[in-house]
Amino acid sequence: MQLGIVGLPNVGKSTLFNAITKAGAAVANYAFCTIDPNVGVVAVPDPRLDKLSDMYNPDKYTPATIEFVDIAGLVRGASKGEGLGNKFLANIREVDAIVHVVRCFEDENVMHVDGATDPTRDIETINLELILSDMEYMERRIDKTRKMLKGGDKKFQAELEVQEKILACLESGQCARTLKFDEDEIVYLRDLFLLTIKPVLYVANISEDSLAGTEPAVVAKVREIAATEDAEVVTISAKIEEEISVLDDEERALFLTDLGLQESGLDKIIKAGYHLLGLMSFLTAGPTEVRAWTIKRGTKAPQAAGKIHSDFERGFIRAEIVNYSDLMACGTYANAREKGLVRSEGKEYIMQDGDIVLFRFNV
Fold first, then answer.
1. pLDDT digits (tens, 9 = 90+) for 7-31
2. Sheet of strand 232-236, all strands in order from the earlier edge strand to the far edge
3. 326-348: average pLDDT
4. What burial class does residue 54 get, using C-beta atoms within 10 Å of its C-beta: 0-12 exposed, 13-18 middle, 19+ buried?
5. Helix or strand or coil: residue 347?
């Protein structure tokens, strides 16, 4: 999963990115890796994996990971190449979802690019640039499809109707993700690299003083916009995340408790990201390695096996599965098997979050 962090200048975007990637290095003792100066890979905290590690004492511990991309700040006119506009838009096209950081705090020492805090205006500024870019893109695609249709191939008629539906939405000032598509229409979306169709997680960056108290009224504006797009919203304080990021696990837990918080902003962002994209994890465990594998909800067993190796999917025979809670209750895999809690599932089995799996295959 790759999440692109976007936002106007001075909203706390880079502070959050730096805090998240530092925290990712410490959580679960997973080595932080920087692929590019603005791309960080962090481990997904998973207490289930920790428990399995205690049980098996494996040679290798491999959590699921998320890539966070700190995308260049946006200015008005980015869709026309202003500032770092072209780079900004190209980077967004490559991510699975957008983490849109919205300033919801007042600080006279941190200048707002538009003079005052206004989450609605800030969100509309970025969305407008994405919409304008998508409009230009869709106009080119529609011209191409019309030419193909004039050639006499009627199969392009349905494709053209979907493209015109999207363009009309964009021209009305709405993001393409607000549209509803039926199964036949979804087929035509696969080769459309639209910016405004990507899922969005709005991160309301509030002051540290507001974090454990009543949610600031301005956050309600973010939630109103998110509700129209089926988007997720989390509230964090980038400054607090920055302070947490340099603490070890025990200090971090104490710090969060003192603030009256149950989890860090990173944990909230990861959970919301998984929910937004319909993702979950299945687990493999043994003395060689304990590992989490990220898949889409609704994935069947052979396709999950293919995440490990294509041979596993090609030669799939069955999946031997034990529920995580059952394994923990039994204490060992052998005990779980004796109690009949290890199931044998076939090709039509739909994987469940937290399944601990041994795939049987033959190629």
1. 887 788 888 888 877 744 322 233 3
2. 33-36, 39-43, 65-70, 2-6, 97-103, 200-205, 232-236
3. 96
4. exposed
5. coil
